[in-house]
Amino acid sequence: MVKWFRGEIVMNNYNLQKFNAARKALEYVKDGMIIGLGSGSTVEIFIKELGKKIREEGMKIFGVPSSYQSYILALENGINVVDFLQYSELELCVDGADQVDKNLNCIKGRGAALLREKIIASASKKVVIIVDSTKYSESLNIDVPVEILPFSWGFVKREIEKIGGIAKLRQGTGKVGPVITDNGNFIADCYFGKIEDAEDLEVKLNRIPGVVENGIFPRRIIDVVIVGEEKEAQEITK
Fold first, then answer.
1. Residues 145/169, Cβ–Cβ less than 8 Å
2. In whole angstroms, what is the distance from residue 50 CA to residue 80 CA?
3. Structural domains of the chain in order of their starting residue, each with its CATH number
4. pLDDT band at 73 (very low <50, low <70, confident <90, very high)
5. 199 carries an active-site annotation
6. Neighbour tally for 143: CB within 10 Å
7. What is the pTM of this model?
8. Residues 186, 88: Cα–Cα separation, whole Å
9. What number is the average pLDDT over the span 69-77?
10. Catalytic residue among 117, 147, 159, 202, which?
């Protein structure tokens, strides 16, 4: 969790890496752009820094948020919130990730916004992922979040086990029962061990009836990954 004091980020080494990644992503922003806004702590920093840039340079930026968190932050920071009824193609998407491998495959969804995040990424001309150095790995090996139609949970759980996964329904911390997404669905966290072929697993999961979307963002939809470090940020491209 990123800590803020009177609107400013409280800097430690971990937050400094996030800050450097977010600041580097600002280089892709141009006046008048329509930007897809992801979710999470690093994107939170990006949106607030973008708000400063808007105020200082008199820019006009339009944003399509992926979650209520990003929606509220966008409004608070001078971004004109729009949707796909107004703009079907976005010029830029800036989002975070829970893990990125050396081939630019990502796992996302710990914030339970993966469905809208993938729609926004797929609708964008350029997708920039911003992470701190702890999220960069040789291979993907953490749980894959999967958004599931509640009616189908028992069946989907069985089908995920058939393709080698262990699926656990994510439980809420602020209320009794499972986490419910902004779209009214369940989230299951599915462990597959080391993922050798991210794109193949993404396709297999999405073929299961009842799976709405999964948190594997394969390299085909990612253009740039920015890895924040303590002194600077490193760009990784295809």
1. no
2. 12
3. 4-136+219-237 (3.40.50.1360), 144-214 (3.30.70.260)
4. very high
5. no
6. 21
7. 0.92
8. 27
9. 97
10. 117
